Each structure stands twice: as structure tokens, then as C-alpha cells.
């Protein structure tokens, strides 16, 4: 099946972001994509100073648009993420809609991005956001898909549990920056893919040098052998790739690590 990653240029005008995203989703659908994914914070600039201003209820304006375009195009739409307001708290939340427009999954970013690299970048999502507390998976006729958002990708246990639960594709909307992007963006994706013998796709906003937070870009798809099979540059674009589940099965047969794990010695478990 064909997967499309929309590396969207995100502006400060929410309505423009929604309109542009819907247009690119239509374009991707017309080119045969069955699963289409948007980037982290696709409807608003990324930054703690923006989350409260742009936050919405779910359902709300942005998710209603996503539901409508998923139904119109008859696709599975991974809606990147938006700032969500619920019960007085803010979350960084990814919604997924099916070909009938129904909400299939809602993933709140589990690991908040609180880092301090002296002289380069300091960022603290926990100043405004609350963490999610659950894993998020959804089924398609093609395969089961696991969701994470950006910083979630650094936590190998989360990806391993998705693999244990039968996911063959992991999708991470994410906005790595100009410090962590060149160092770890591709490395982490390849690690998650090889460790669990599955496909990993990441969807970044396009790079905007004028933004207060400059995203690395380079939306990517990695196969279960750890190879980069599709990759964007820094500009707005749509990345297409065909996900070959026969290749995944062959790799797992050739190197059967999943059946060779020493569960008598170690294990990773989902607690809730």
C-alpha cells in the first residue's frame, strides 16, 4: 500500500494551515496514497507560547476538517498533531480518521520534550503541556499501526511494545530541531525499525528559518532492514513510498529475533 507524508509549511494563520493541509491530502489521495500523515503541530506554530492560543477541543475545528477530508478521499488520515484543550489541561495530540470519517485513535504525546543543551537549545513542553498516559494503535486492512509523537521516538520500550502488539508500521509526527535533527533524527528511526523489524515513518513540518523554533524537516520512511527508502529535504513537499509487507515477513523469517528473545531473562511490558 502507498503511504504519503505531508511535510507542510506551517504559518501563524490556522485557517491557511488547514486549507493547505487539506489540499495536499487531496493531492496525495489522487496519487494513490491509502495512508496519509501530517506533521506535528500542523495547524499552529510549534512553541510553548503558542499552545494555549491555538488549542482546541476534540472534536473541534481542525479535527472536523480532518474527518471530512478523510471521508472525501476515502483514506486513513493520521492528523499530525494539534494543541488540544481538555478539562483545563493542554495536550499535544494526534488524531486518526478512517475512510468513513470516523475517529479511530487519539494519541496524546506521552513523553514531554524537556531538554537543555547548553549554548544550543533549551525547551520545556511541560511548562504548558500535560502528558498522555496511553499507547495508541489502530487497524487498517493493510496492517496495524502504532503512534508516537516526536520525543516519544527516543523511548525504545514504547516501540517494542507496539511491535509486540502486532504493529508493522510506526508513525511519528515530529518536529526535531536544528541541533537534535542532524544528530539523531534518522539514527533513532533506523534503530526503532531494526530493533523491531518494522517500518518507521516520521513526518516533520517544513523548515521555516524565520520561526522561533526551526524544524529540521527531512520526513523519512525506514524499512525493517534499517534502510532509508524515502526522505524529504527541508522544503514543503509530499513524500510517497510503497510499504511492502512481504519484505517485512521475509526479514523476520531470515533473522527471527522476535522468536529468539530470552523472555525468561528480560521483558518489556505495557502497564496500562
TrEMBL record:
<protein>
    <recommendedName>
        <fullName>omega-amidase</fullName>
        <ecNumber>3.5.1.3</ecNumber>
    </recommendedName>
</protein>
<feature type="domain" description="CN hydrolase">
    <location>
        <begin position="1"/>
        <end position="245"/>
    </location>
</feature>
<comment type="similarity">
    <text>Belongs to the carbon-nitrogen hydrolase superfamily. NIT1/NIT2 family.</text>
</comment>
<keyword id="KW-0378">Hydrolase</keyword>
<dbReference type="Pfam" id="PF00795">
    <property type="entry name" value="CN_hydrolase"/>
</dbReference>
<dbReference type="GO" id="GO:0005739">
    <property type="term" value="C:mitochondrion"/>
</dbReference>
<dbReference type="InterPro" id="IPR045254">
    <property type="entry name" value="Nit1/2_C-N_Hydrolase"/>
</dbReference>
<dbReference type="InterPro" id="IPR003010">
    <property type="entry name" value="C-N_Hydrolase"/>
</dbReference>
<dbReference type="GO" id="GO:0006541">
    <property type="term" value="P:glutamine metabolic process"/>
</dbReference>
<dbReference type="GO" id="GO:0050152">
    <property type="term" value="F:omega-amidase activity"/>
</dbReference>
<dbReference type="GO" id="GO:0006107">
    <property type="term" value="P:oxaloacetate metabolic process"/>
</dbReference>
<dbReference type="InterPro" id="IPR036526">
    <property type="entry name" value="C-N_Hydrolase_sf"/>
</dbReference>
<dbReference type="GO" id="GO:0006528">
    <property type="term" value="P:asparagine metabolic process"/>
</dbReference>
